[in-house]
Design a protein that fits this description.
The complex is a heterotrimer of chains A (272), B (740) and C (225). By secondary structure, chain A is an alpha+beta fold. Chain A has eight helices and twelve strands. The chains are: A alpha+beta (272), B alpha/beta (740), C mainly alpha (225).
């Protein structure tokens, strides 16, 4: 007997972000913070200490005026598949089973109450997608009223990250079960950033499903560990063989190069 | 039997064995570990029924259609409303973070009377009766003295029922001094008044254009209705439209455009005329429009051919002659070209010549009122109230000249609040006794802040209708708490370029926090307290009734859909569009005179003393209007814009080298208007000789998440009244930067 | 040990030493038994009493009575909303239909109407099965998709005429029902305990996909949020 919140075929939820359309406005970051009860402090300008599940980096082409160019790159958790399915960098090192790879959805989960804060996963993640709670989150008086009950509020001493708004998957499945369905429609489960993006630059869906836009845009090649078939598409730091499920589209050659260069991302992480 | 040490040990061993065999250690271990998973002070948000309410968020420039997700009555998330015209489900970051403002600690929850000196932050709470009693006493005093014109009001927007109630209140009271914060919509309105002869709002049919020439407009930096612009931009990318961005700094818009054309600041209008020169010289313009529907073309042609040759324009703008020629040809040959202007987010009004020049480009190509072009829309006319009755005092007051000179010294202008400071200081034509402020935050948003703070100190009584303790409320004598944007009805007339008449309806989504009153209700109550013709002018029992009656048969539809839009709207055909003396489009209105207003406006300050030029820039990540950035927005600000409490200014590495400045150097930024300590961020994306500073930082009011961070650029720049329109024409100011 | 050695030194070769040793041995065993018994009593009897504080529900609700009056069984009051979410303990609005006026003469009924219905206050029910914040539980997945009945997890509460005392764990703050009434955690019936292992055990038995790469059990996000 098959029961519980599972769909028939296993999914590989992923994202395609069109960097030609991204305006760098930051609405995805705000929507993410609002959806996921992300805490904030009085000073968030030390970006190493700033918890941003979704962060929009600015990349520059390094050329002098007037040939300078900028590109914005939104970075959620990349939900890496890893060298063997599910052996993403963070999952492989977590000693607490606090982070895990779900083969049914392809989502890298993070269970806050399980985490004891060793931060191995942060060291392992090449994308700076994980954040540590150095302080207990504090909401100014009254603001705790807007907290979302579907996402656990975190506390000091644990690591948190983007989970592709998994609570929205849970909610969508509840509705499906109520209606006697087991499969979700493409638009029934969308992340908060995808929904909010005013430019429509973020597309979310099942990379295994040829009907889904993410599949059509990225054209993942299953024989090459999901490498994009679309020449406009690339994944961040492909050479590290982390096999992320977040794809980027850009018509600019230098942006593709930047996406492959570990140094440039490191720099972006340190400075931005 | 003797009890000895061995017995004790044995007892201990037995106890230990028993303890191990009891559930105690295992259960305590389990409970402790569960307890340690969440501290008692970690908030545990309550579950409940999920409901969704549609409304319009009034926080951003043009109002985002929003869907508020509530759980058991609490608002937990604001999302874009599917199907809202223009936005279509998208949302801007300010409106998305609206709950932080709504539930935030800087809300004003009860009427507050100033106790200490102005702006000191010493208050005592008073009852509404006391508060309204104080306002009516102040107002009655001005009428008794026969100087009702000494009462003024500043609101944010010109349209909508709340501004209309303020205007009506002042009119019936006897004061012409109704002011609002002008934007690029006012500059465009002045242009349409001069060239079309009509009172119109500007609209842009952007979605159907295929070659967009933007003279400094931050298409994806918050210009116009931000979400609609983002969507149009994405549409252009999909369709392969061309976007050329003319501006001195590599904004996000410039970076995403097909071509960034760096141009000397202030010379954007000259470049437009340089393109017009080529288009006219090469006869690439729309003959039908120019020959049959326009007048003054010959004068315009002669001026452009004589003064704006590629050589001259290249000198003025710093743009290559070849670029001028090629862009002019591409533009003219495009299927649906469209030129737009209004720098950055369009919150500044700019030089009339610049707007006229860009509009002339559209006229040359015949894009006016055409698909993919620039449209003249009727001004919102749904507020049809009978003229308020005026008594003798009111008639006397209304006969007086306005303090800001709009309508008198500057006939095309409607509101010029930047001129208020000088009028107050010089008491010319008369002094200001009472200032009411609602929805606006002039003590943050107006240029020349230092000056303004001092002069507003001379106004005996300032009353602020405030949702949050902003800079103006903090400086007021009396603060009247207003419900937040999620707690009240309000009509939002779209004025930021949407090409169809559109009115959104904000509605109460959650119960009111604190003892607030709608500004509309307060005006009705004040009118009743003052009595006489004023009371007659406000026949409504309360604001909600007033709004419902005003919207009449639109009300039900707006309640159901959240908005009213005229989807079938089409702009007038060319033969009916123009109401100038000639009945044609006026290429060369009288205001142009000798064409001096087409020359780039020199920034304020002495070039020898201030060798650099400061240009404020807009970014979508920081709110720079009357609504301040909530914590989520400040969190998204990059650390090369704000670090701790210090703000970065952008300069070109070449300029930095000359000044001995490096990345992150502390520097003193000085302008003729003020001085501030900043840090330096080197960027190849800004022309040498310029200093770029972000708008929206440097708040002094609000909480520690915002206050004291960075510098308010409005304290460093001053206003320059445009000689023709009177609107603030300043685009920057001369500055110096020295190592600190 | 040293005590025995000392005794031998002082009285070498006497039979008394054996007696003493026997006597000491008995005392030692006696002490051991005392210690063992006392700690077992503390652990099994006293500790549970100390660990849990007893709380009364604000109103003593009669499930049996209501179940007899309604035709949709449990779902009459504990229903699913159209979005698939579960309504949980009924809100006042659901009760008002019948309880706008006092029904009968039970003191709880009178208090319910006077204190809550007439004042429009929600009843602060204590939820026996409330899970920690990190737990995600979908009723609809179990009841509709899995075809489970309410009794499997909640027991026969529906047949009760009085609400049981709510016992709150003084350390963790959660209801005793999660650990189960048996302090050792033994369970007889499926509803005796609601810990993670109980969920996992049933999920494994019922064939929920074991999709976790780390644990080869089911994915963490199945039950966590």
């Amino acid at each position: 007997m098959k029961i519980e919140g599972e769909q028939g075929k296993s999914k590989k939820y992923g994202m395609v972000i069109d960097l030609d359309k991204c305006t760098g406005c930051g609405a995805c970051m705000v929507a993410c913070m609002a959806e996921n009860n992300v805490p904030f402090k009085q000073d968030e300008s030390d970006k190493r200490l700033s918890i941003t599940w979704m962060r929009v980096y600015q990349l520059t082409n390094g050329k002098a005026f007037p040939d300078a160019d900028i590109c914005y790159l939104p970075r959620p958790c990349q939900h890496c598949e890893g060298m063997h399915e599910g052996h993403s960098p963070c999952v492989s090192v977590c000693p607490a089973t606090a982070t895990d790879y779900d083969a049914q959805t392809g989502i890298v989960s993070q269970i806050y109450t399980r985490c004891f804060g060793c931060r191995y996963c942060m060291a392992a993640c090449p994308y700076h997608a994980r954040h540590f709670n150095w302080w207990d989150p504090v909401w100014p008086e009254g603001m705790e009223k807007y907290l979302n009950p579907d996402v656990s509020v975190r506390m000091r001493g644990i690591v948190e990250k983007c989970g592709f708004c998994f609570s929205r998957y849970q909610k969508a499945m509840e509705k499906a079960h109520y209606e006697g369905r087991r499969e979700l429609e493409e638009l029934e489960y969308q992340t908060a950033c995808t929904q909010a993006c005013p430019a429509g630059a973020i597309v979310f869906g099942d990379l295994n499903n040829p009907q889904h836009r993410v599949h059509q845009l990225a054209q993942p090649d299953p024989r090459r560990r999901g490498r994009p078939g679309n020449p406009k598409a690339f994944r961040l730091l492909e050479e590290l063989q982390t096999y992320p499920k977040v794809y980027y589209l850009s018509s600019r050659e230098w942006v593709h190069k930047a996406g492959h260069k570990a140094e440039l991302i490191k720099e972006a992480g340190a400075h931005h | 039997m003797k009890i000895d040490r061995r017995c004790f040990l044995s007892l201990g061993v037995g106890a230990a064995a028993g303890t191990v065999l009891s559930p105690l250690p295992w259960k305590i271990t389990d409970d402790l570990s569960i307890w340690s998973q969440m501290w008692p002070w970690t908030p545990w948000p309550a579950q409940g029924e999920n409901t969704f309410t549609n409304s319009v968020s009034t926080l951003c420039t043009d109002g985002c259609g929003i869907t508020v997700r509530k759980v058991g009555g609490r608002a937990v998330k604001i999302e874009g409303m599917a199907g809202y015209p223009g936005n279509e489900g998208g949302i801007c970051n300010l409106c998305a973070a609206g709950l932080q403002l709504h539930y935030g600690p800087t809300r004003v929850r009860e009427p507050m009377m100033r106790v200490g000196s102005r702006g000191e932050g010493q208050w005592r709470t008073v009852s509404w009766e006391q508060a309204l009693g104080e306002v009516s006493r102040q107002l009655a005093g001005a009428r008794k003295a026969g100087t009702p014109e000494a009462v003024g009001a500043i609101v944010d927007q010109p349209y909508g029922s709340v501004p209309a109630l303020f205007r009506r209140f002042l009119t019936a009271f006897g004061s012409p001094n109704f002011m609002y914060t002008p934007t690029m919509a006012d500059a465009y309105a002045a242009v349409l008044r001069l060239t079309h002869g009509t009172d119109s709002l500007v609209g842009f049919d952007l979605e159907h254009a295929d070659y967009i020439l933007s003279f400094g407009s931050g298409i994806i930096d918050g210009w116009g209705s931000p979400v609609r612009m983002f969507r149009a931009h994405s549409q252009w990318k999909t369709d392969g439209a061309t976007v050329k961005q003319v501006e001195p700094r590599l904004s996000n818009t410039a970076a995403q455009s097909s071509q960034w054309i760096p141009v000397n600041p202030g010379s954007e209008g000259a470049l437009a005329l340089g393109l017009a020169h080529i288009i006219i010289k090469e006869s690439l313009y729309d003959y039908d429009f120019v020959n049959n529907y326009a007048s003054g073309f010959e004068q315009f042609r002669d001026l452009v051919l004589a003064q704006f040759s590629p050589g001259n324009v290249s000198r003025l703008t710093g743009v290559d002659q070849s670029t001028i020629v090629s862009v002019a040809r591409e533009f003219a040959r495009a299927h649906r070209p469209l030129a737009i202007c209004g720098r950055g987010q369009g919150r500044t009004t700019g030089e009339l010549g610049y707007f006229l020049a860009v509009h002339a480009l559209n006229a040359l190509m015949g894009t006016i009122n055409r698909p993919g072009g620039v449209w003249a829309l009727p001004v919102p006319d749904y507020i049809q109230w009978p003229e308020p009755p005026l008594d003798d005092v009111a008639r006397g007051g209304m006969a007086k000249e306005r303090l800001d000179g709009a309508g008198s010294a500057f006939p095309v202008a409607r509101s010029l609040p930047h001129r208020l400071a000088a009028a107050i200081r010089e008491q010319k034509p008369y002094g200001l006794q009472v200032l009411m402020v609602s929805g606006a935050n002039p003590l943050y948003t107006l240029p020349g802040q230092t000056d303004l703070q001092q002069t507003l100190g001379q106004v005996p009584f300032i009353v602020s209708f405030a949702t949050h303790m902003d800079e103006t409320a903090a400086y007021a004598d009396l603060v009247l708490p207003a419900p937040s944007h999620l707690e009240r009805y309000e009509d939002v007339a779209s004025t930021a370029g949407y090409p169809r008449p559109l009115i959104g309806l904000a509605r109460p989504v959650v119960p009111r926090e604190g003892d607030t009153r709608h500004p509309g209700d307060v005006l009705i109550q004040l009118a009743a307290a003052l009595g006489g013709s004023l009371q007659e002018a406000f026949p409504w029992p309360d604001y909600d009734t007033c709004l419902q009656e005003t919207l009449a048969d639109r009300w039900e539809a707006m309640l159901a859909d959240g908005y009213w839009a005229n989807d079938r709207f089409q702009p007038d055909n060319w033969d009916a569009a123009f109401a100038t003396a000639s009945g044609r489009f006026e290429f060369f209105p009288d205001a142009v005179k000798d064409g001096a207003l087409f020359q780039p406006l020199e920034p304020e300050g002495d070039a020898a003393q201030f060798p650099l030029v400061l240009i404020p820039y807009d970014t979508a990540r920081i709110s720079n209007g009357p609504v301040a950035s909530p914590p989520f927005l400040i969190k998204t600000v990059a650390d090369y814009v704000l670090k701790g409490k210090e703000m970065f200014v952008e300069i070109n590495p070449e300029s930095a080298d000359a000044l001995g400045l490096r990345e992150g150097s502390a520097a003193r930024l000085t302008t003729p208007r003020g001085s501030a300590t900043v840090r330096v961020h080197l960027s190849h994306g800004i022309m040498p000789g310029l200093v770029g500073a972000p708008r929206g930082l440097g708040h002094t009011a609000y909480d520690d998440y915002l206050a004291g961070k960075g510098v308010n650029v409005n304290a460093l720049v001053g206003a320059i009244s445009d000689p023709a329109s009177g609107l603030d024409a300043a685009w920057g100011i001369r500055a110096s930067l020295a190592k600190a | 040990m040293s005590t025995a050695d000392d005794a031998s030194k002082h009285a070498p070769g006497t039979g008394a030493a054996d007696d003493r040793a026997d006597g000491a041995g008995g005392a030692i065993i006696f002490a051991f038994v005392i210690g063992l018994a006392a700690s077992l009593i503390v652990g099994w009897v006293v500790f549970p009493k100390l660990l849990y504080s007893q709380k009364r529900q604000p109103i003593d609700f009669n499930h049996a009575l209501h179940l007899g009056l309604e035709d949709q069984n449990c779902e009459s009051c504990h229903f699913f909303r159209e979005d698939g979410s579960f309504s949980g303990a009924p809100a006042l609005a659901q009760c008002i239909g019948c309880h706008a006026e006092v029904q009968g003469d039970s003191p709880d009924e009178i208090r319910f109407v006077e204190e809550y219905v007439q004042k429009g206050r929600e009843v602060p029910w204590l939820i026996y099965s409330r899970q920690p914040q990190c737990v995600y539980f979908s009723h609809v997945a179990h009841v509709r998709a899995g075809g489970m009945d309410c009794v499997s997890c909640h027991g026969h509460i529906g047949e009760s005429e009085r609400l049981p005392v709510y016992e709150e764990n003084r350390i963790s703050g959660y209801s005793r029902n999660l650990w189960g009434h048996n302090i050792a955690g033994f369970k007889k019936d499926s509803w005796d305990r609601m810990k993670m292992d109980d969920c996992a055990e049933c999920h494994a038995r019922e064939g929920v996909t074991q999709a976790s790469v780390q644990t080869t059990k089911e994915g963490c996000f199945v039950c966590h949020k």
